[in-house]
Amino acid sequence: MAASSSLRVSALLLVMSIVGSLSMVVSAGNFYQDMDITWGDGRANILDNGDLLTLSLDKSSGSGFQSKNQYLFGKFDMQLKLVPGNSAGTVTTYYLSSQGSTHDEIDMEFLGNLSGDPYILHTNVFSQGKGNREQQFHLWFDPTADFHTYSILWNPLSIIFSVDGIPIRQFKNIEESNGVPYPQNQAMRVHASLWAAEDWATRGGLVKTDWTKAPFTATYKNFGANACISWSNGACASSTSGSNSNSWLSEQLDYSTQGQMKWVQNNYMIYNYCTDTKRFPQGLPQECSMS
């Protein structure tokens, strides 16, 4: 208990120091201003004066983009409309990542399906190059019929994944003193991609991609970042598309949102690494008994 309290105090002090360094407000929400297309040879396109960004996948290549800025903590929102119809073998992603072999990463990956079957939302957290913290969910709506908002809150206290404002997963910063690192020292960019993974994405690779349905297309809009932009000199500046730009630094789940998360996990979670004793026969990862 003492170690956990000490860690929380340290995290709160870090929050206070970051709040003190926030100095600049930058608008967000236009893909021309916020993102660079990084690969795809014309398969990624910014449309409607920067309001929409589409990624496409065919048998030759997928496509992707990343944020112009890199961030150290923030709340990131993106609206997505996923590949409709038979999207088996495709993976649409929205995630944060640093670089290098000891990188940090916070993942949302949407695993394609046969027509009529549900998409799988695959989440993972990497810290200092170590991942293997997967949780997977079905969604309570058709993510191909309309846009829905997918959010990642990353602050010194925890990482919270949300869908349409409903939290589905929390990864707390309570493990550092016990040898499980938390992503808090490496700046990360926002990334997104659409790529082929028929060897594992749909029913473990049993269902292959029907390339006669290509090109497959996913659409992104309304990116927003209330976040700390990390500059090369170590300085930090606020990037915000709304008011109350600093509230995310100490945001946590309250009683109501904890109940929402429990509802999602009870009804829509289909995999949790913290219950997979076959995968971890020597014992579950240490953080599983501490969250």
TrEMBL record:
InterPro entries: Beta-glucanase-like, Beta-glucanase/XTH, Beta_glucanase, ConA-like_dom_sf, XET_C, XTH
Record-listed E.C. numbers: 2.4.1.207
GO cellular component entries: apoplast
Glycan-carrying positions: N113
Keyword match Disulfide bond: yes
UniProt-recorded Gene Ontology molecular function terms: hydrolase activity, hydrolyzing O-glycosyl compounds; xyloglucan:xyloglucosyl transferase activity
EC top class named in words: transferase
Gene3D superfamilies reported in the protein's UniProt record: 2.60.120.200
Pfam families documented for this protein: Glyco_hydro_16, XET_C
Residues annotated as catalytic: E105, E109
Keywords carried by this UniProt record: Apoplast, Cell wall, Cell wall biogenesis/degradation, Disulfide bond, Fruit ripening, Glycoprotein, Glycosidase, Glycosyltransferase, Hydrolase, Secreted, Signal, Transferase
Residues annotated as signal peptide: 1-28
Chain ranges of the GH16 domain: 25-220
Entry's Gene Ontology BP terms: cell wall biogenesis; cell wall organization; fruit ripening; xyloglucan metabolic process
PTM statement from Swiss-Prot or TrEMBL: Contains at least one intrachain disulfide bond essential for its enzymatic activity.
Subcellular location: Secreted, Cell wall; Secreted, Extracellular space, Apoplast
Family according to the record: Belongs to the glycosyl hydrolase 16 family.
Physiological role: Catalyzes xyloglucan endohydrolysis (XEH) and/or endotransglycosylation (XET). Cleaves and religates xyloglucan polymers, an essential constituent of the primary cell wall, and thereby participates in cell wall construction of growing tissues.
Protein name, per record: Xyloglucan endotransglucosylase/hydrolase
Organism of this sequence: Rhododendron simsii (Sims's rhododendron)
